[in-house]
Amino acid sequence: MSGNSNGRVGIGSVESEYIRRHHTHDDLADHQCSSALVKHIKAPVHLVWSLVRRFDQPQKYKPFISRCVVLGNLEIGSLREVDVRSGLPATTSTERLELLDDDEHIFSIRIVGGDHRLKNYSSVISLHPEIIDGRPGTLVIESFVVDVPDGNTKDETCYFVEALIKCNLKSLADVSECHAVQDRTEPIECM
């Protein structure tokens, strides 16, 4: 596993312990790649979690998603059909909710279909409280495992997926921090 909010630079012991506890992807095959990325967000865990846990509305902070429809009830095993914005090498994705732990703040999905090259993709996001600049903040860790598509290397595949996750985490930070400021001051317009 690699990565932090600045890319593939070493991560601290706190982050390493959370990755060990919550982000082990069992049985990584030779044709797969895996990584973990870290983001520190200047907003309390409950606020960040209120966005992350919304399996039915990932577009609230994921800029590459234009629409999401949940099939059936919202529970473990539920499926969602996601439409991807143009500009990416994909149009749709079918994803299954694997884990939604409101106590530990852990969320996991698996891609089970769609028009894209991310085969056998699964991800885990965990949120952990921390203090940033004397205020409640959130340490977010997102890890993934995915098959390396034919014609690509592990490095190319990890770089592509990491770039998407970094965009999502930056957007999550922007939206969360905007709402955190809004809670402390007068109403302002967030994404």
TrEMBL record:
Keyword Translocase: no
Keywords: Abscisic acid signaling pathway, Cytoplasm, Disulfide bond, Nucleus, Protein phosphatase inhibitor, Receptor
GO biological process, one term: abscisic acid-activated signaling pathway
Location in or out of the cell: Cytoplasm; Nucleus
One of the record's GO molecular function terms: signaling receptor activity
Lineage top rank: taxon: Eukaryota
UniProt family annotation: Belongs to the PYR/PYL/RCAR abscisic acid intracellular receptor family.
Name under which the protein is recorded: ABSCISIC ACID RECEPTOR PYL3-LIKE
Lineage per the UniProt record: Eukaryota, Viridiplantae, Streptophyta, Embryophyta, Tracheophyta
